[in-house]
Amino acid sequence: MTSLRRAFVIVCCALCLSSCTLVSTSSSPSLIGAAAVPLGLLQPTIPFTDYAQVRWVTRSIFLIDRAEHIVAVARLMTAPASLFALLYYETQGPDPIELANGITTQVPTTMVVNQATIHDGVALIDVSKALTQISLDAQRVAVGQLVFAAASMGATRGIRISINQSPYTLKLPTGALATLITPADVAYLKKG
Q1: Where are the domains of the chain?
Q2: DSSP label at 174?
């Protein structure tokens, strides 16, 4: 008899709990009032602080369009935007919508940006060896993407790349070797 009572109590509890739900049964979203949003998430400051605010800015990364030209694509990031942060987004490549529209990248998604700073208009960028593991033509395009991204952040004189702290030299289409790659060196890649 005790087993039968336990089973009966369990079934009753299960029936009672099954009628409760935390999820709305409405088929469309419902608007809630600002007073119902918890933890101050609608405040202009970060929750649990009195002063810290998140500001957003739009910066351009450079990807490749269907015609195989390098084009600027906007990315939203926290302010102040740094070259390091911008290059992080560059290594993430196109989002799914951009991919569906034929936007691609030559920058390896496995490439890690170890360091990125700008001094006297020249960006000093240290990356992992993934950059050297792609074809020379792909390297030229990938480096072009990095040059234009760095130029958009103020590196107007070009970039110097190192691979795990070893200097990198790019063979340009003219046959010249460049350790300082300037926007003029890769201008032929950009959409006119």
Answers
A1: 56-189
A2: T
63 strand-pairing partners? 71
- In the DSSP assignment, the letter for residue 190 is B
Q: With H, G, I as helix, E, B as strand and everything else as coil, classify residue 170.
A: strand
- H-type alpha helices, 51-135: 83-92, 96-100
pTM of the predicted protein model = 0.74
Q: Coil, strand or helix: which one is 155?
A: coil
Cα distance between residue 123 and residue 156, in whole Å: 9
Do the Cβ atoms of 60 and 72 come closer than 8 Å?
yes
pLDDT per position as a tens digit, 60-96: 999 999 999 999 999 998 888 999 999 999 999 999 9
Close Cβ partners of 105 (under 8 Å, ≥ 6 residues apart): 63, 64, 90, 93, 94, 142, 145
- HSE-up of 71 (CA within 13 Å, CB side)? 14
3, two tokens:
């087993």
